[in-house]
Amino acid sequence: MKKKFIALNTSIMIGLGSLFSIPAVQAESISNIESKRTGIQEEIAEAQKLIKELNAEQAKLTKQIEQVEQAIKENNAKITKTKEQIKETQADVDALKKSIAALEERIANREEVLKERALSFQESGGDVNYVEVLFGATDFSDFVGRVQAVATMAQADRDILAQQEADKAELEEKKAAVEKKLSNLKSMKVELEGMQVQIESQKKQSEGAMAKLEAKEATTKQLQESLEKKDANLASQIASILEERRQEAKRKAAEEQTLQQAAREAQQSTQSSTSNNSSSTSSANSKSDTSDKSKSTESAEPKAAAPKPSSANTGSAITAGYKYIGNSTYKFGGGRTASDIANGLFDCSAFVSWAYRQAGVSLPAHTDALAASGTKISASQMQPGDLVFFDTYKRNGHVGIYVGGGKFIGSQSSTGVAIANMSSGYWADTFKGYVVRVN
Predict the structure, then answer these.
(1) What share of the chain is helix, strand, coil (3-state, %, to 5)?
(2) CA 403 to chain centre
(3) Whole-model pTM over 0.90
(4) Cβ(30)–Cβ(302) under 8 Å?
(5) How big is the CA angle at 383 (ends 400 and 334), to the nearest 5 degrees?
(6) How far is C-alpha 175 from the chain's CA centre?
(7) What region, left, alpha or beta, does residue 353 occupy, with left being phi > 0 and alpha being psi -120 to 50 degrees?
């Protein structure tokens, strides 16, 4: 019986020992998983930060695309209007052609009259004059008649010549006016269409950049989703391990109760002293097991997750313009309303006028007026803040503000507000030395 008791106690100790050894292993696994989760959660935070940055870039690009689309829309309207004006002017040209034909016919008829008179004069010997006609009268009555005839003929010749000269002058004036108007409109149409091509190219570039950002965002979101799935899977593993631990503890508790009951039955069949000793031993073992269980449980708890201007005015004008660099779009006729200014839509002259207005200087918003709004100086005397002009589609067709170092800031059709190099390339070719210093 004593041997049986010893065997039962041994079984109890082995059973209780196995009860707390498994959770210790599980605790180590939970710690490793939590460590993995910490790394994954850090990667998720980085992905979320990147997505936020990409969204900010997308918002900026969206605004730029909206500005470009508005500029394209308004430029298209101007192109359409210019085409209509060209069509109307062409109709004027066609009407003028008919008028010219009538004038030319009248001129030809008068020339025929003059030719006939010249021929008649030649056939008479070429030496008949009005005086001879008058002195060839047969009597006084005939003389009076001849005087009246000569006067009429002389006045008629003068009238014909005067009408001839007037018609020719009118013809030339009409031709010049219509041709100038038609030429200006055609030049404007070419300029607008060129701008439209550049603006549409700018839009395509922005859309391309947007597509790349969207693709990058989609990839980052996929990575985030994948990481979140891994994190959820690890969390599920931890929950599973904890549940297994609870089930194992429950099973072991039931097993412990059964073994303890068997031990008590064995004790009752032995001698009293042996039973007391066995009871003391069992009590000590029970306390030791309880202490081990407490220590094992503590170790099984999961660890927490690781948590140069020429004056003050010109300098201010240049500085004011910098805010629109990379944040504006060229718009023909733009920059003259609060809406355009708020959305960074300028043409060259309006931008210059706006920039100087920020410095407290009032300037007109047209290139021709700006060209006459200050003191013309030599290009060799240029200083930051001086206005520089370029011969694009017409003389002084583009204007900007010189910033020094052979560069100027202005609203260009291809870039919007930007600093451009006037020492080489297109701007060097179109700069003819026209510089104005603002008074």
Answers:
(1) 75, 10, 15
(2) 24
(3) no
(4) yes
(5) 15
(6) 45
(7) alpha
Distance between CA atoms of residues 40 and 46, nearest Å: 10
Amino acid sitting at position 93: V
* Residue pLDDT, tens place only, 285-304: 544 454 444 444 444 444 44
Q: Which residue has the tokens 């391990």?
A: 241
What letter represents residue 394's amino acid?
Answer: K
State which amino acid sits at residue 304. A
Closest CA to 401 of 303, 307, 321: 321
How many secondary structure helices (H) and strands (E) does the chain include?
9, 8
CA distance 422 to 111: 58
Residue 70, phi then psi, degrees to nearest 5 = -65, -40
Q: Strand 407-412 to strand 345-346: parallel, antiparallel, or no bridges (unpaired)? A: unpaired
β-bridge mates for residue 400, sequence order: 388
Q: Residue 413's Cα: distance from chain center in Å?
A: 13
Which residue(s) pair with 325 in the sheet? none
Domains of the chain with CATH codes: 1-300 (1.10.287), 312-438 (3.90.1720.10)
Both tokens of residue 224?
């985030």
Residue 193 burial (C-beta neighbours within 10 Å; 0-12, 13-18, 19+): middle
439 CB-side CA count, 13 A: 7
SS3 (DSSP) at 304: coil
Give tens-digit pLDDT for 390-400.
Answer: 999 899 999 99
